[in-house]
Automatic annotation (TrEMBL):
UniProt organism field: Bifidobacterium favimelis
Class in the EC hierarchy, top level: lyase
Name of the protein in its database record: Fructose-bisphosphate aldolase
Record SUPFAM superfamilies: Aldolase (SSF51569)
E.C. numbers: 4.1.2.13
Gene that encodes it: fbaA
Amino acid sequence: MTLATPERYAEMLYAARRGSYAYPAINVTSTQTLNAALQGFAQAESDGIIQVSVGGTSYFSGRTLQDRVVGSIAFARFAREVINHYPGITVALHTDHCAYQYLDEWVRPLLSYEKEEVARGEEPLFQSHMWDGSTVPLDRNLKVARELLEESKAAHTVLEIEIGTVGGEEDGHRADIDSRLYSSPEDGLKVARELGLGEGGLYMAAFTFGNVHGSYKPGVVKLRPDLLGEIQSHTAQAIGRGLVDPPQAVDPSGRAMEGQSIPDDHPFLLVFHGGSGSDLDDIKRAVGYGVVKMNVDTDTQYAFTRAVAGHMFTNYDKVLKVDGEVGAKNEYDPRSWGRQAEDAMAARVVEACRELGSAGRALR
């Protein structure tokens, strides 16, 4: 397992679109959950993406610092060291859901840091960053996206954008479950006109089709994967009529990639947010329309914590000093329940790889 270079990351994304599969993007909050995600990718023989959110990076830096940039750098450096000791598959690092109010204190400083790395002939710290413009009007969203795409190109990173609103709660941000959860084909065409389809830099687009963060009972979430197909088709037709320039296969630095074809009917590299608990048929249909990355957070959080809870309930009289006893150190040692939690989370990562079709398809 190695950390993806910018060129390798682009190859991963194009291969997924061409092969009609997607990579699980696993949110992590600690070195322990990072190791669990890596274990899962290795067991599934799948390339993948590991990401940290605005709250996750703060948590990484510790309660005393609570510094998102420090946490991001510490996470990425630790991840790079560990990843490069796993042979066989490739992993990319991503920052997830940066809302407008966090840009100047999180993603923009990281992009500046990465531009300096690239200027020194080094690889960037992360391979992609997400700009979450779901809380601002579309015109403003795309104006910021254009600025960030230019910076991302200079930093040799991929930009991810969100068009529409994802319901539920993510790191303290809450959105209602209503009609705003559905992007339109015209939204897709506007994105292509404003950002291009590769010529201005490589990006992924998370159009919303009823997505909701968190876990809900059946019937609450109304996903419409076919909407993604309509968005792709509408933009593809515009290309055919000469209303938008054809998509170009480029790496994150903007360099054309030889031998990389783009399907005529899938001009966008798509992202699926709020995927935890989704119906498997909806997931497969979304992937069929060009989704190459699906965020997985709630399900892996639960898998990790459920294993810890099981250990604590089963061994309550050993992890607690009940009735004046001394307990059992080997049961309250964090490594004992931590290993179980890592194994449980890794198993859920393997399941995600199989559901998305990336298992056994690591690039060689």
